[in-house]
Design brief:
With about 180 residues, the chain is mainly beta. The chain has a single domain, classed as Lipocalin. The chain contains one helix and eleven strands; from the N terminus they run E-E-E-E-E-E-H-E-E-E-E-E. It has an eight-stranded antiparallel barrel with strand order 1-4-5-7-8-9-10-11. The model has no long low-confidence stretch (mean pLDDT about 90).
Length: about 180
Amino acid sequence: MTTLTDLQGTYTIDPAHSRLGFVARHAMITKVRGSIDEFTGTARTGAGLQDAAVELTAQMASIDTRNADRDAHLRSADFFDAEKFSTLTFRSTEVVAADDETLRVTGDLTIKDVTKPVTIDFEFGGRAQDPFGNERIGFEGSTTIDRKDFGLTFNAALETGGVLVGEKIRLEFEISAVKDA
């Protein structure tokens, strides 16, 4: 059985088998789900987690909520201003094993040139060799941020009270990574 401390080396995220998603409250009554479809990332670790490092870069122009008008609005200056701030980045500052199956990754999340610390708990899905001889690892995790902390302040009041877009955004990570040769 593989444990978190057994993972050594550099792993590159496989975007074809991974997902970077988000969930936002809409009109105070439902949720909108979306993803950022173009991203790259690596995770490195040595003999222990004390030297581990995680990096992720996502292209904001690839945001997808399955609605072209909403996607264009999210890419606009009202929200992410993807033309001016093309990437979202995350760089770890600390990686620890919270328990035998959970990796707690703390780091700096940058959206629209605003950097704030966040902590993400990742559940270890395991390690396997794929049919092509690659060593793969899997993790799933999430965290909640306040979008206003990152300068995402657009909103509209509703006649019935409340606002169009909730402040709390859940970021979701489903990661499959391949060990570098």
